[in-house]
Amino acid sequence: MAIDIFEGMFEYEGMTSAAAVLDGSPTRATVDELQARIRSMQATTLDTRTIPTHPAIARLLPGGGLKEGATYSVENSAVLLMALLAGPSAAGSWCGVIGVPEFGVEAAEHFGIDLGRLVLVPHPGEQWLDVTAAIADVLGVVVTRPPKRASDSSVARLSARLRQRGATLIVLGPWPQSEAMLSLSDSHWSGIGQGSGHLSARQATVTVTSRMGRPRSARLWLPDPHEQFREVGRFAQPEAGSPHEASSLPEPANLHEPAYLHEPAYLHEAAYLHEAAG
User: Fold this and answer.
1) Which of 7, 87, 124, 258 has the most neighbouring CB atoms within 10 Å?
2) Distances (CA, A) of 269 to 104, 128, 211
C-alpha cells in the first residue's frame, strides 16, 4: 500500500492527489504525528529563548545566557550553582534543587535567591529521575545531582520533556547532551590570616566548555568581599540602600592564603557558606 502511494506521487496525475490518497490511508496519522514532532523540534532549535543569567557568567555561555529547554553541567561547586540560580530567581523564576541535602538556604538567600520561589527535594531516593522530570513540568529552573548514571533512553526522554516545557536543567556533575559544562580552577580565598579570621572572598577562573566552539574562561569573584558575583577588575554596583559606593570597592591585595591552598576547594566553599549562613 505504502509503495503504491509513493509510486503514484511520481506520476503526473498522481502528484495533485497524493495528499488525498494519504488522507484515506492508515499511515496518515503517523505522518501527521511525525510532522508535529519535527515542527516542535524545529521551534525549540530556532526559537529557544534565554532566561535571565548573571552578567558575569552570561557572556561565557553559548548564546549569552542559560537557555530554556537546555541542560548544563556544573562541576561540584555550591557557590557557582548559586551564582547560576541567582539571575533566574531574581527575575521571578521558580527554582528546584533535587538530591542536594547540603544546599544552604540561608547562603542562597544571601546571594539573591528568592526562598519563596525555591523548592527543595533533598532525598529523592531511587526515583530521582522521575522526581526531576516531574519538577521540570512545573518549575522554570531545576537542579539535580544524579546518584548514578542515567540510561541513554532516560536522558533522551528527559531532554524531550525539558524542550516541551521550556525548563532549564542544571546538573551537578557530568551529563550527556549538556549544552555546556561549567568548571572552576585556580581558586584562591582571602580573609584568613595567620590562623585567624574569616573566609571573606574568593577569586576563581570559571571555564565554560560547550559542544560547539572553543572553551571560554574568565576570572571572577565568587564572591567578592561585599558578597557579590562579578568579574575581577570590574567594580560591583551597590544594591539599593547599600552603604557601599562603587568607587569604594577596591580589589583586596592579599588573595593567597598558603594554609588553604593545599586543601580541596570544596572544603573552602563549605566553610564560607557556613559562615555566610551564620
Assistant:
1) 87
2) 11, 25, 28
Closest CA to 160 of 37, 263, 54, 267: 37
We find that the CATH architecture of domain 50-180 is 3-Layer(aba) Sandwich (3.40)
User: 162: which DSSP letter?
Assistant: H
Q: Distance between CA atoms of 246 and 168, rounded to whole angstroms? A: 33
Distance CA(75)–CA(183), nearest Å, equals 5
Q: Would you give the distance in Å from CA 68 to the centre of its chain? A: 10
The one-digit pLDDT tens for each residue of the chain (278 residues) are 433 433 333 343 433 333 333 344 445 566 556 655 554 454 444 456 899 998 989 999 999 999 999 999 998 788 899 999 999 999 999 999 999 999 999 989 988 999 999 999 999 999 999 999 999 999 999 999 999 999 999 999 999 999 999 999 999 999 998 999 999 998 888 766 555 556 778 899 999 999 877 899 999 988 888 888 888 876 555 444 433 333 333 333 333 333 333 334 444 455 445 545 55
Residues in contact with 242: Cβ distance below 8 Å, sequence separation at least 6, in sequence order? none
β-bridge mates for residue 148, sequence order: none
